[in-house]
């Protein structure tokens, strides 16, 4: 499968690297606006670069070779993964992707694609589609969690989630808050609940605030079941689901910063942690309800889903894809159930 990546920022460069690590895919190139340090590194690594139209000369005058513009990259690709800023993907769709296959990110409105996607939740709905939207980081984490809990043998009645959102990604030096806690948005629900419902038809309400950290998001989640689940059945469901890690206090996991340090110690590229980081000690049962907290590494959690979205569009069976992606990205564990 020939895959091109348009937009080479926080998400795009990670997705491009994941494509490079995936043996059944070939990275046809990446398209960018600016001839900056990221472009220079891509060139040094031999990744073919394409420019946003009108920017070719800016690249060439900076000594960075480009092979053409976005249209040239699209024509060489079976699927394009668009990882441009919110709203640009929709513009690019009309300009470049008509009659082609494209994957969009969660910053786009759901209507940009034929289906909003999470690999665990609704992989098969993306099969054979031309336009698929991988939902955003928080929505991906909630969709994975709900899918895992739905496999516990207990029916979910409703989900209520409180999201502490990181204020910015680590490199975003102009974004805040820097000394505040901001209702994000000030209205309830936040967009995440409705967004989960584009993937899973579940009763869900979400509330979000933004805080001055860059490491990860934190979710405080309450799931009510039709009957009382045992804590063991919940832990078993989470532990056996791919892309969910349960991290316990006795192993030193008491904060989000420690999750990122763990990813670094594991030698994960860029210190990325692509799994839901569920704090095992937080999992508790009150009547029919489960409470838990999970960390969400916003820079990387959607990367495996982008790879699976491409395979779903090309018709690969669900578990074959999820397992192949997890093996390629170093997420595979024999303790997990792939199927
Ligand atoms: N950063 C995050 O935490 C997450 C972001 N997302 C979503 O992923 C998408 C991308 O977000 P980020 O990677 O954070 O953005 P970013 O700003 O880090 O990167 C966007 C890249 O696209 C380039 N670009 C801008 N206009 C372009 C155009 N017309 N054509 C080609 N490239 C263009 C920019 O130069 C930049 O390299 C958004 O939809 C966002 O909502 C999803 C999950 C997490
Ligand atoms: O997709 C994200 O968040 P979301 O799941 O809250 O929409 C990313 O963290 C990007 O969020 P931003 O809109 O603060 O850049």
TrEMBL record:
The UniProt record gives the binding positions of D-glyceraldehyde 3-phosphate as 136-138, 192-193
Q: Which GO terms describe its cellular component?
A: cytoplasm
Pathway(s) per entry: Carbohydrate degradation; glycolysis; pyruvate from D-glyceraldehyde 3-phosphate: step 1/5
- This protein's superkingdom? Archaea
- Give start and end of each Glyceraldehyde 3-phosphate dehydrogenase NAD(P) binding domain: 1-137
Please provide, alphabetically and separated by semicolons, the GO molecular function terms listed in this UniProt record.
4-hydroxy-tetrahydrodipicolinate reductase; glyceraldehyde-3-phosphate dehydrogenase (NAD+) (phosphorylating) activity; NAD binding; NADP binding
Report residues binding NAD(+). 10-11, 107, 166, 298
Subunit comment: Homotetramer.
Q: What is this protein called?
A: Glyceraldehyde-3-phosphate dehydrogenase
Q: Which organism is it from?
A: Thermocladium modestius
Q: What is the lineage of its organism?
A: Archaea, Thermoproteota, Thermoprotei, Thermoproteales, Thermoproteaceae
């Amino acid at each position: 499968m020939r895959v091109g990546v348009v937009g080479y920022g926080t998400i795009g460069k990670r997705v491009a690297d994941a494509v490079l690590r995936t043996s059944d895919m070939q990275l046809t190139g990446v398209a960018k606006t600016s001839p900056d340090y990221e472009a220079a590194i891509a060139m040094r690594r031999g990744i073919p670069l394409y420019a946003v139209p009108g920017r070719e000369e800016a690249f060439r005058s900076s000594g960075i070779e480009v092979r053409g513009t976005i249209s040239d990259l699209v024509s060489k690709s079976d699927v394009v993964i668009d990882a441009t800023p919110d709203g640009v993907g929709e513009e690019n769709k009309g300009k470049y992707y008509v009659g082609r296959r494209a994957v969009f990110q969660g910053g786009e409105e759901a209507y940009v694609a034929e289906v909003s996607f999470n690999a665990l939740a609704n992989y098969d709905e993306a099969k054979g589609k031309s336009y698929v939207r991988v939902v955003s980081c928080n929505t991906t984490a909630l969709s994975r969690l709900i899918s895992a809990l739905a496999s516990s043998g207990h029916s979910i009645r409703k989900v209520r989630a409180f999201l502490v959102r990181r204020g910015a990604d680590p490199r975003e030096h102009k974004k805040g808050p820097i000394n505040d806690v901001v209702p994000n948005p000030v209205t309830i629900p936040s967009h995440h609940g409705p967004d989960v419902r584009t993937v899973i038809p579940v009763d869900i309400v979400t509330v979000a605030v933004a805080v001055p950290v860059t490491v990860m998001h934190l979710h405080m989640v309450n799931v009510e079941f039709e009957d009382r689940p045992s804590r063991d059945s919940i832990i078993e469901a989470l532990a056996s689901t791919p892309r969910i890690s349960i991290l316990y206090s006795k192993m030193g996991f008491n904060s989000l910063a420690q999750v990122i340090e763990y990813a670094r110690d594991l030698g994960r590229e860029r210190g990325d942690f692509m799994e839901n980081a569920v704090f095992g000690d937080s999992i508790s049962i009150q009547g029919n309800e489960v409470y838990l907290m999970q960390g969400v590494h916003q820079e990387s959690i959607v990367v495996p889903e982008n790879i699976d979205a491409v395979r779903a569009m090309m018709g690969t069976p669900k578990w074959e894809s999820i397992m192949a992606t997890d093996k390629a990205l170093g997420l595979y564990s024999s303790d997990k159930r792939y199927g």
